[in-house]
Amino acid sequence: MTDHTNRQFDTELEAVRSRFLQMGGLVESQIAAAVDGLANGDLELLERVVARDDEVNTYELEIDQACNHILARRQPTAGDLRMLITVVKMVTHMERAGDEAEKIAQQAKRIHEAGRRNMPAVEIWHMAASVTAMLRQALDAFARLDIQAAAQVVRQDKGVDAEWQGVIRQLVTYMIEDPRTISRSIELLFIAKALERIGDHAKNMCELVVYMVKGQDVRHTGLENIEREAASN
Amino acid sequence: MTDHTNRQFDTELEAVRSRFLQMGGLVESQIAAAVDGLANGDLELLERVVARDDEVNTYELEIDQACNHILARRQPTAGDLRMLITVVKMVTHMERAGDEAEKIAQQAKRIHEAGRRNMPAVEIWHMAASVTAMLRQALDAFARLDIQAAAQVVRQDKGVDAEWQGVIRQLVTYMIEDPRTISRSIELLFIAKALERIGDHAKNMCELVVYMVKGQDVRHTGLENIEREAASN
């Protein structure tokens, strides 16, 4: 490759990376807005989250197209190829995380439109804070090729899963004690489920970051193995 | 490329295709077994589904690795590149569909271990039949490059989503009428949710099949557009 072609190739790779980080920033703000809207009953904010899911989808299509073009025209190898394949995989998870934010917003709209202001004090807010932090950290890990940070997210996901089980138990208890809370509790259950899924996607993305950096596929290999890979950085 | 390299390349592509179809066959049988186990309380069968999820995961890793190798060494273009990128994307959905089968089996185990034989007659069996058929058809569409079949699956997913909404309403009614059914109903709700997700993954895979065959990304473009692409075959 000539120097010129090389520089252009680098520019294209950098454009994909930064586009993906922008997409991640949008999804992060979508989740935050959906959770804020749930907390404050801000219907306008919730409508905006639903409307902006289209922007998330557009990012997905554009990033995939850019990756396909680079793969077809530049025929990258080694680290560059791994980065592109990682982005192709990560973008699917990021789009799904955006979908979950939209689902939370839809569910929150229903809750507030039905005038259900008196929500059970379940651990949903804590789950929301955890998964938002995990998603941000997944993006940082990707941006900085930081597999220690990635391993941490995988560890945090265990905590979120435990919180999710706690929310289920708590909501079932509410429903049994006061069957008038059933509809409301089911709505909150779906919101908690969406948060749990976002945590999962953050974890999946971090496993892909480890692959991108180390060339080692750590999916399905357990937390200990991922932490070993991170330690041997 | 020499004839020999060409033949070897074709063999490699064919191996990826057939490995993916095998993985799909396994996931299909996992879903069927999980649903059978739920219906008949066959705990041994349910245990087997849980145990075999590892095989699904192994397929995912192997197929991704094979695709990466081909991309790195053969630098495919046009249709071959599209096929590989499609498989890289589809395999993520297939693995998730396998995860949902495992979740159904886990939930079914809990239901039967708690001796809850008297299950509400919700539309779960019909949903199960629908999504199993959709997954099989998604695999056929991939194998035969049949975008009419792919478009049909996308259409069927709307029906599954409607069934899912019906199951929620039905279970909420049960719970309100008889709060003793709350725990059991929540378990069934999660099973129905897993089935709905499998339908979604089948739909997502079919959108990717359309891309593979037509080179046109139809994700997020609506059913009408997908049917138009299929009609212009």
Task: Give a topology summary.
2 copies of one chain form a homodimer.
Chain A lengths: L2 H38 L2 H32 L3 H36 L10 H21 L2 H31 L4 H33 L8 H9 L2
Helix pairs in contact in A: 1-2, 1-3, 1-4, 2-3, 3-6, 4-5, 4-6, 5-6, 5-7
Characteristics:
flat; mainly alpha; 233 residues; 0% strand; 7 helices; Methane Monooxygenase Hydroxylase, Chain G, domain 1; homodimer
Short description:
Chains A, B: Belongs to the PhoU family. The structure is a homodimer of 233-residue chains. By secondary structure, chain A is mainly alpha-helical.
Walk me through the structure:
The structure is a homodimer of 233-residue chains. The mean pLDDT of chain A is 93. Helix content of chain A is 86%, strand content 0%. By secondary structure, chain A is mostly helical. Chain A starts with a helix and ends with a helix. The radius of gyration of chain A is 20 Å and the shape is flat.
Let me know the average pLDDT of chain A: 93
The tally of beta strands of chain A, per DSSP, is: 0
CATH-scheme architecture of chain A: Up-down Bundle
Largest interface: A-B, 33 and 33 residues
CATH topology of chain A: the name is Methane Monooxygenase Hydroxylase, Chain G, domain 1
What's the CATH first level of chain A?
Mainly Alpha
N-to-C CA distance of chain A: 31 Å
Quaternary status:
homodimer
Low-confidence stretches of chain A: none
| Distinct helical segment count of chain A | 7
